[in-house]
Amino acid sequence: MRLEARGLVRVFPDGTRALDGADLEIRTPCFMVLSGPNGSGKTVLVRHFVGLERPQAGIALADGVPVEENLADTRRRVGFVFQEPEHQILGITAGEDVEFGIRRRVPDRRERRRRASSALKAVGLAGAEDKLASALSGGQKRRLAVASALASDPELVILDEPFNGLDPAGASGLLRMLLDLRDRGVGILVVTHDLEKCLAHADRLAVLVSGRVAADGTPRELWDRLPDLGLRRPPGGPERLGEMTWLG
Ligand SMILES: Nc1ncnc2c1ncn2[C@@H]1O[C@H](COP(=O)(O)OP(=O)(O)O)[C@@H](O)[C@H]1O
Ligand SMILES: [Mg+2]
Prior knowledge:
This protein is α/β, with parallel strands linked by helices. It is built from 7 helices and 10 strands. It has one domain: 3-Layer(aba) Sandwich (Rossmann fold).
């Protein structure tokens, strides 16, 4: 599928110009990274793709149709994993949490359970159906949030700062899982201010600066510009891209 932001503008009541004419296109299949310094507008931008923000100017499109005109369908096709997984957990147990998101779409209880089990398995939480969601580790909660997104069989999953707060084992486990989903044809958009541990896997990188997409291309093409765009990377040439991963 194809998501597009065209000329998105978002000015908050306090005058903060979070988006200032942002243009971006995402086409599946992909493992795309959207980066940029803290406060550059990444979160506000991607929230437009699932209708959590309404465009003040410009437009967000899913396969050419405004997201707002096709909200339920877009939300089914585009999974969204919030920066704080706690904000997303709605069930007491892991299984209930995943089932909650598909309760309307899949009225049959047994089918719902089956889908929840399969989504939990896909994120490495097989057999966790009856575990208390609140008792899961940070990395497991994030995987649970991904499982909830996967239960509706999305074409693309957007993850906002998914590695934040995870220890190295949790982060590498999550990254491995995302690469596995990518290999199965699910589009992945990782939103992160820190490229250091995932850029090696990206087929495309877009960089937001002050609410505009300042660079868009392959990591190799953008390598020399990264420091000027406020992004950290190892010194030297793009042959060092392979080091930018959680997988050791
Ligand atoms: N609800 C809000 N009210 C006022 N300012 C906001 C709000 N949400 C975000 N901002 C501001 O908009 C800018 C972009 O925010 P955000 O998209 O969260 O940045 P990023 O995700 O790149 O760190 C920041 O300056 C942030 O402080
Ligand atoms: Mg953010």
